């Protein structure tokens, strides 16, 4: 089980790196749950850290159903140097639309660099806004030939992943994804006390921001003490698996 931390600046990315995170996921929280950062920030983070052991990731945003727009966003991300690309399926209304959008993202990324990991991302709290279900996300990820499927929370009002989906639902999601050869990332206001449960569910990647920020508020800055404690706890649980 790897840890993904989402900084919004080079300074925060350095803190995450120094604390030993596996994946540095550059995002822009002013543009939503999976808000896209700027190419110059992504390039600056990668140049500043310059560590081949670190995996750099970028989000493309909470996307409308516009495959061409998503393709150009994906090209911007991979050409900036990231190895993980997450696309948030916010505007796609059904599996067919989701496959259309993600197939465009996958082709763009793989044409540029076949080693890039493409993540079909959706929302655990999908029922709050009429989004795609976790089962639909698995189907979309598999049909589009994505590498990973992820759920986060779209509405950031203090409710967590576990308020939206219970352990059984999350376990079924992970099992369905693994059965189709997909890795799984789970996020959404999760904290260190959730790590054992996330490991039991079978998450391959755990994504956080608020859990490692001052006051557990994603709008504040990443706290190096919280980040280090979170990563140590995750590593201990992963080592015991």
Topology:
Layout: E1 2-5, H1 10-18, E2 23-26, H2 39-49, E3 55-63, H3 67-79, E4 84-89, H4 95-112, E5 117-123, H5 134-143, E6 148-152, H6 161-164, H7 167-179, E7 183-187, H8 195-201, E8 205-208, H9 224-240
Keywords:
241 residues; alpha/beta; 8-stranded parallel barrel; 9 helices; 8 strands; 18% strand; 4HFCP_synth
Describe the structure in your own words.
There is one protein chain. The chain has 241 residues and is an alpha/beta fold. Helix content is 42%, strand content 18%. It contains nine helices and eight strands. It has an eight-stranded parallel beta barrel with strand order 1-2-3-4-5-6-7-8, surrounded by seven helices. Helix 3 (67-79) links the parallel strand 3 and strand 4 (84-89). Helix 1 (10-18) packs parallel to helix 2 (39-49) and helix 4 packs across helix 5. It starts with a strand and ends with a helix. The model has no long low-confidence stretch (mean pLDDT 96).
Task: Put the structure in a nutshell.
It is built from nine helices and eight strands. The chain is of the alpha/beta class and 241 residues long. The protein has an eight-stranded parallel β-barrel, surrounded by seven helices.
Strand content: 15-25%
**What is the number of strand segments?**
8
- Within the largest sheet, what's the order of strands? 1-2-3-4-5-6-7-8
Considering DSSP H and I runs of 4 or more, what fraction of the residues is helical?
40-55%
Q: Please state the structural category.
A: alpha/beta
Quick check: average pLDDT?
Answer: 96
Q: Please provide the ordered H/E string of secondary-structure elements.
A: EHEHEHEHEHEHHEHEH
Keywords: Lyase, Schiff base
EC number: 4.2.3.153
Function: Catalyzes the formation of 4-(hydroxymethyl)-2-furancarboxaldehyde phosphate (4-HFC-P) from two molecules of glyceraldehyde-3-P (GA-3-P).
Protein name: (5-formylfuran-3-yl)methyl phosphate synthase
């Amino acid at each position: 089980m790897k840890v993904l931390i989402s900084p919004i600046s080079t300074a925060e990315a350095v803190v995450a790196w120094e604390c030993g995170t596996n994946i540095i996921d550059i995002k822009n929280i002013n543009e939503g749950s999976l808000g896209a950062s700027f190419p110059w920030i992504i390039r600056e983070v990668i140049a500043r850290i310059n560590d081949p052991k670190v995996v750099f990731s970028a989000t493309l945003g909470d996307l409308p159903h516009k495959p061409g727009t998503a393709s150009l966003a994906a090209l911007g991300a991979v050409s900036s140097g990231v190895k993980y690309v997450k696309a948030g399926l916010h505007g796609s209304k059904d599996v067919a639309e989701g496959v259309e959008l993600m197939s465009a993202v996958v082709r763009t990324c793989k044409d540029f660099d076949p080693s890039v990991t493409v993540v079909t991302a959706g929302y655990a709290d999908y029922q709050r806004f009429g989004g795609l279900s976790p089962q639909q996300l698995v189907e979309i990820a598999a049909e589009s030939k994505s590498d990973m499927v992820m759920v986060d929370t779209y509405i950031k009002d203090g409710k967590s992943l576990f308020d939206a989906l219970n352990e059984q639902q999350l376990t079924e999601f992970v099992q369905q994804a693994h059965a189709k050869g997909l890795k799984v990332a789970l996020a959404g206001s999760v904290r260190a006390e959730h790590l054992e449960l996330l490991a039991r569910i079978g998450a391959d990647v755990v994504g956080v921001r608020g859990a490692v920020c001052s006051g557990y508020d994603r709008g504040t800055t990443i706290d190096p003490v919280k980040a280090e404690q979170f990563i140590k706890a995750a590593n201990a649980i992963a080592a015991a698996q």
